[in-house]
Design goal:
The chain is an alpha/beta fold. It contains 8 helices and 7 strands, in the order H-H-H-E-H-E-H-E-H-E-H-E-H-E-E. Helix 3 packs parallel to helix 4. The radius of gyration is 16 Å and the shape is globular. Bound molecules: S-adenosylmethionine.
């Protein structure tokens, strides 16, 4: 979810109050015992626990995967495997999820958790650069893409995601508010996310819904005929 701040002394804004976030958490069902374990491990044993999506967003991703009937999912930015597992757990038997991670340490941790999941056979971790990996995937075969890696490449991830998505497929882009920094972008990551949001907004191939959940989730549907 939250990556470490880079490029300048700019503050991070909490979009909802701590009270509202806590209330939302308390009124959202937990995920599997394994996901609870991934969360506990990430919070206590990794350098950047703020990158974890967590229960509320995990539940949202899972619901989107279920409601859309997704069979082919691509998860960009594995970290410790939370978003990948949250969505893979609701894939049908013949469903597949590809998750992409370039950091070998993160990939190793995630693989350890994937191995223990009943959904392990449906998950493929591709270790490497996300953009290069996306370019190897075929046109029009993916049902859902979750974008949650480096902000500088969000626009490129979007273009590749539109290519690999089937008509009616979904893109969910995390950190679309970038902790409020998109309102007055002053550093490279903030400018990249703001430019991404504007690019999506003007793309006639897409239907858009901008949610202020957590740090902002841009929900994008590829139009039929696009
Ligand atoms: C915010 S974390 C992902 C959080 C994860 N989706 C979750 O649910 O907890 C972003 C991850 O993307 C990875 N990443 C950043 N840039 C990347 C790139 N160019 N290619 C592949 N992975 C990248 C980082 O190493 C990090 O593990």
């Amino acid at each position: 979810m939250k990556e470490e701040p880079s490029g300048g002394p700019y503050s991070f804004m909490d979009i909802a109050s701590k009270e509202a976030e806590g209330y939302a958490l308390a009124h959202t069902s937990p995920l599997s015992a394994l996901l609870e374990e991934v969360e506990a491990f990430t919070l206590t044993s990794t350098a950047y626990p703020g990158m974890l999506t967590g229960r509320v967003e995990g539940r949202f991703l899972r619901l989107m995967a279920q409601l859309s009937g997704a069979r082919q999912i691509v998860d960009i930015g594995t970290f410790t495997g939370y978003s990948a597992l949250a969505m893979a757990e609701v894939l049908p038997e013949d469903g597949r999820l590809i998750t992409i991670e370039h950091n070998p340490e993160h990939a190793k941790i995630a693989q350890g958790f994937f191995k223990r999941s009943p959904s392990s056979g449906r998950i493929t971790l591709r270790q490497g650069d996300a953009l290069e990996t996306l370019r190897t995937l075929p046109d029009g075969k993916t049902d859902l893409v979750f974008i949650d890696a480096d902000k500088q490449n969000y626009a490129a991830y979007y273009q590749e995601s539109m290519r690999i998505l089937r008509e009616g497929g979904l893109i969910l882009a995390d950190n679309a508010l970038w902790y409020g920094r998109v309102f007055d972008p002053k550093d490279d990551d903030s400018r990249a996310v703001a430019a991404f949001n504007d690019m999506v907004n003007s793309d006639t191939r897409a239907e858009k819904l901008f949610l202020t959940v957590r740090d902002g989730i841009y929900v994008i549907r590829k139009r039929t005929g696009a």
